[in-house]
Amino acid sequence: MFGFGKKKTRPEAGGQAPAAGAPVVERNASEPPAPGPVATDQPPAGGRLAQAIAERADRQQEGEAGRSFFRGLRNGLARTREVLNADIAELVTGRKEIDEDLLEELEMLLVSADVGMPATTRIIEDLAYRVKLREVSDPQGLLEAVRRQLADILHRADAPVRQPAAGRPQVILMVGVNGVGKTTTIGKLTKQLQAEGNKVMLAAGDTFRAAAVEQLQAWGERNDVPVIAQHTGADPASVIYDALQAATARGFDVLIADTAGRLHTKSNLMEELKKIVRVMKKIDPDAPHEVMLVVDATTGQNALHQAVQFNAAVPITGITLTKLDGTAKGGILFAIAERLEVPFRFIGVGEKIEDLKHFEADIFLDALMKP
Ligand SMILES: Nc1nc2c(ncn2[C@@H]2O[C@H](COP(=O)(O)OP(=O)(O)OP(=O)(O)O)[C@@H](O)[C@H]2O)c(=O)[nH]1
Ligand SMILES: [Mg+2]
Fold this sequence. Notes:
- The protein is α/β, with parallel strands linked by helices and 371 residues long.
- Helices cover 48% and strands 11% of the residues.
- The protein is built from twelve helices and nine strands.
- Helix 7 links the parallel strand 3 (200-203) and strand 4 (227-229).
- Helix 5 packs across helix 11 (332-340), helix 5 (139-156) runs antiparallel to helix 12 (361-369) and helix 6 packs parallel to helix 7.
- It is elongated and about 65 Å long.
- It starts with 24 loop residues before the first strand and ends with a helix.
- Bound molecules: guanosine-5'-triphosphate and magnesium ion.
């Protein structure tokens, strides 16, 4: 459903010559074997029955994984659920009609769930209008209308990931404040993109924090993908430029560039990000195809400020919300989507490599609002 990378449709580009003399230190030169298409014309070992049983077991496992993921998400969103689900339900219970008081209380609940004033005001105004038109006439209908409004905010922000021109890698630039989970998300995302059939390369653009290169390197080794890096203190724009050159010359499908965590209020650090983008464009004017802001879901309103400031420096095209396994204020999602109309791509629900899920608005809303 979500073409983050791209399935291999073009011929294997591995035959191209590697970049000569690129001034990069490649700390893990072992490239992953090209995944290549799985042959489908071969009869499955063990025949059709065995295949059917295996497929059923897979589905069952997926179902169980899905259920436990959903439970985890519900737990992670416990704080917001208390407000958006329990409190709103309590608010409407026993009421026969919708009056101004009810709408006012609902407004306060949405704000306290971190949905933010602009989105809340729009939702309440719309509800008041529908009540006037008698489209919404009972408290239960009101609950459903709130859910529709929240879904609408998320769907309005939806946009596909930009794809690269033929023969060029898709470049994903990861940005965000310190410790939100950028590097971990890269490790998890690499695994997913490989599973989609992509050749992935990583760029160690965090040259600031001690051991940041080694941390990315460890994810590179785990996923068996090359990491282009220089020494700590090197110019991150130069590292990423070299990596893009190498990824292009060697026919990689995706290049994911890590960057150092930075405070959104520090203008010199925001300038550094702009420079990274400027320099990339010398190789590919379309790069980066995705500027992925990583935000920690537990930070509440500050996440909105981060999103606004990063977006002003390097327009962000996607958001990953991490740490939704902690107790998050999920309402912030609506505030960000309302303000910037940038889609949520992934949610992080743990520290393990498989703990990254595609963001799906309906599952998220169910986790928030289903009793
Ligand atoms: N519980 C939980 N922890 C996470 C998640 N994502 C990342 N972490 C943890 O958050 C911590 C910081 O992760 P990093 O990936 O190093 O964060 P970063 O943004 O790269 O940090 P800097 O490079 O220092 O800015 C690590 O301990 C991760 O394991 C998540 O979805 N859930
Ligand atoms: Mg990092």
